[in-house]
Amino acid sequence: MDKVQAFGKNFTASFSPFATRTQQYVKEQFGQVEDKTQLPPDYLELEKRVDALKLVHQKMLQVTSQYSNEAYDYPPNIRESFNDLGRTITEKVHLLSSASSPAEAQAALTALPAARPQPKTFNHAIARASLSSSQLLAQQHTSPGQDPLAAALEKYALASEKVGEARLAQDAQIQTRFLAGWNTTLNTNLMFATRARKNVESSRLMLDAVKAKAKSSGTGWSLPGQAAGRRDGLDDEGSISEEARVEIEQAEDEFVGQTEEAVGVMKNVLDTPEPLRNIADLIAAQLEYHKRAFEILSELAPVIDGLQVEQEVRRHETYNT
């Protein structure tokens, strides 16, 4: 029986502040409150800045989270089979180099995977299409030597695969050095700021509820050091009880303490250099990828130009013999 009574008292003690705050909130929503404790202008300015920072994180992550999706640039209009995704372009080229018949060449293109399926990226798709196209030309080529276009497509396939691998390396860097950081800021740091602000609002509601209770009792109240009488619209009819005065002072101390804590949390979120550092890492990863792609294609371009010149020379010789 004693345990039941103790539980009842504890439940009442914990529920009563919540009920008081809820009642005060409802009254404010229906415009039934004349006096409402105002937050400092500096605090309100911090709230606006935190809200803006949260919105920035949400907008950026909505777009950049695509870096976690391997196929974000994979063409939706193509259909590749399991065999198409079986082996890397480098592996297929190696198998094709040892093929002695069209049947062996076809088997090399459709060889079962040695590991997981190949990446579904735009560059990898270009590589697979280029290699397949190269083999189609090679199988129909009956003249001496190698078909220039087939040779060019094979080299382009190898280069495209390298560019695709560089893109995957970029994505991995962005996931660990940008997305992880910004998600932490959004889901942890900004969440702490939101929680601190809710504590401020709860303590503010409690303070105003206590004030309203003192006002409805028909007596005035005053802060320490002030004469009892007309305060915040209360009638000048004496002072409140010591118990009520202590309750008001405790509510005010709680409100001030929660406000100061929230200010510290919000300033910490706003002043941290982590988001800017993460942006620098994002740009660095993108830069490395584009530099690598530039290097790969710069090596390929003169080779393709050479094949083109070679073909033109052969064509010229053919028509002039």
Radius of gyration: 36 Å
Number of helices: 8
Mean pLDDT: 80
For the largest beta-sheet, the strand count, sense and barrel status come to:
none
Number of E-type strands: 0
Give, in order, the helices and strands.
HHHHHHHH
The residue ranges in which pLDDT falls below 50 over 5 or more consecutive positions are: 3-15, 219-238
Task: Characterize the structure shown.
The chain has 321 residues and is mostly helical. 73% of the residues lie in helices and 0% in strands. The longest helix has 69 residues, at 148-216. It is rod-shaped and about 120 Å long.
Brief overview, please?
With 321 residues, this protein is mostly helical.
Could you outline the blueprint of secondary structure elements for this entry?
Layout: H1 2-29, H2 41-64, H3 89-97, H4 102-109, H5 122-140, H6 148-216, H7 242-271, H8 274-319
Helix pairs in contact: 1-6, 2-6, 2-7, 3-4, 5-6, 6-7, 6-8
Based on the model shown, name its key terms.
disordered N terminus; single chain; rod-shaped; mainly alpha
